[in-house]
Amino acid sequence: MRGEIMESHIRNIDLAPQGQLKIDWVAGHMPVLNQLRKEFEQELPFKGKKVVVCLHLEAKTAYLAKVIQAGGAEVTVVASNPLSTQDDVVAALVAGGIHAHAWYGATEEEYHQHIHQALDFRPDYIIDDGGDLVSTIHQQRRELISHVQGGAEETTTGILRLKAMEQKGELGFPMIAVNDAQMKYLFDNRYGTGQSVWDGIMRTTNLVVSGKTVVVAGYGWCGKGVAMRAKGLGARVIVCEVDPIKANEAWMDGFQVMQMLEAAAQGDFFITVTGDKDVIRGEHFKVMKDGAILANAGHFDVEVNKVELKALSEETRVVRPNIEEFKLKDGRKIFLLAEGRLVNLAAGDGHPAEVMDMTFALQALSLTALTEQVTPLSAKVYPVPHEMDLRVARLKLNALNLKIDELSIEQKEYLSNWVHG
Ligand SMILES: NC(=O)c1ccc[n+]([C@@H]2O[C@H](COP(=O)([O-])OP(=O)(O)OC[C@H]3O[C@@H](n4cnc5c(N)ncnc54)[C@H](O)[C@@H]3O)[C@@H](O)[C@H]2O)c1
Q1: 194-215: per-residue pLDDT in tens?
Q2: What is the pTM of this model?
Q3: Are residues 365 and 392 in contact, defined by beta-carbon separation less than 8 angstroms?
Q4: Of the residues 84, 157, 189, 229, which should be mutated to test ligand 1's pocket, given the most ligand atoms within 8 Å of the CB?
Q5: Atom 44 in ligand 1: residue holding the nearest Cα
Q6: pLDDT tens-digit readout, 14-48
Q7: Ligand 1 pocket mutation, candidates 55, 162, 180, 273, criterion most atoms within 8 A of CB
Q8: Long-range contact list for 110-114, CB < 8 A, 24+ apart?
Q9: Which residue, by CA, sits nearest to atom 42 of ligand 1?
Q10: Quick one: which of 170, 278, 376, 401 has the fewest CB in 10 Å?
């Protein structure tokens, strides 16, 4: 049943109680965001403002939406990926007074329709993940460009797109690059992706990782986490890179480094996490072992070339939820998880709450930074202010009850002098 409640388009409002339980569970593990929520309830930094949040719609993002709502905003949520929406969580948001346009398994057409419905809300501020919201505004809803006062972008891929727009002079409003804050990528991309990718693969396949050969394509912040956790699970890990520095880093971290064509013949599991397209393609499928399992953790479902995989296959079928079998013409079988979409979100619950606590604190604080501007920022991509990164770091240490030393005046002087007497 599709609900049309409070200008929302969702699957079923009756799922709200079970979605609320999920939100309550993560809220209990997000102390930094809880601290900000308390402050926002007092200070109402977003009072009278409309915010559209375009993220993977599960419990943690839902809690971020609730925190922004607690700061006085009217909030609309929309999915950044049709396969990561949890219908019960979205129902709970709607029951709690947030507008939503999303359901699990939305078709391509519905997905874009939902983005338009969210934009009909005419947001003052936006939170985007991967750049679909920003790109829709700039390509199809240009009347909103002068209305939107700014936003924050969650992920590497979205920031690449924003920087391309900025360079061409096509970005119409300021955006804050949350992904590039240290309290984001050092933890979310590395430890969050590292853990949740394996959680998604293991719960979907119910197979052992130990003793297997895992091929990780991309040794950026996410790839480092995926490779590190594969090693911890007992796998032999091969890294494929295009950046010579990252390739050296992977080698020194103890991984094998080789070209994909060579790795393709050896891997039992393949995980792409590059943000690039066609990383695994026809020539690679041709040499893969029978039973090879492919998963993607990069933002878009373009890293594994599904069209070429299909063309090499005589038959495809779904053999378990989120596992599609491609039977090749020579009889080998290759399995693709979650249609090649982000495996940790499409076939799992995404990153752990304790990690997203920091990322979403940065998102919420970035929005406050935008609302506090006396003169509007020009239409550029801005870093998260370093003090904000430090603030989130301190709040997290506080929540963990960890104390660290402080520099003495003498130490500060020593560190800032080049003459050491
Ligand atoms: N699954 C998740 O939850 C999650 C979380 C954060 C980011 N992401 C996404 O994951 C992707 C990677 O993010 P990141 O932060 O690690 O980026 P990054 O820029 O730190 O790393 C990407 C790496 O991929 C390498 N690369 C590019 N093309 C390649 C190719 N053809 N073959 C091999 N390597 C190649 C680059 O050299 C780079 O080292 C992005 O799309 C990002 O949006 C996903």
Answers
A1: 999 999 999 999 999 999 999 9
A2: 0.92
A3: yes
A4: 189
A5: 298
A6: 999 999 999 999 999 999 999 999 999 999 999 99
A7: 273
A8: 110/82, 111/79, 111/82, 112/136, 114/9, 114/78, 114/79
A9: 156
A10: 401
Per-residue pLDDT reduced to its tens digit, 116-148 = 999 999 999 999 999 999 999 999 999 999 999
> Residue 52's pLDDT band (boundaries 50, 70, 90)?
very high
Geometric angle at alpha carbon 108, from 170 and 10, rounded to 5°: 105
Give the distance (Å) from ligand 1 centre to CA of residue 157.
Answer: 8
Question: Greatest CA separation found in the chain?
Answer: 76
Q: CB–CB of 98/5 below 8 Å?
A: no
> Which residue in this structure is represented by tokens 């936006």?
126
| Total length of the chain | 421
Q: Can you tell me the mean pLDDT for 141-160?
A: 96
* From 128, 129, 153, 156, mutation site for ligand 1 pocket: most ligand atoms within 8 A of C-beta: 156
Rounded to an integer, the average pLDDT of 224-242 is 98
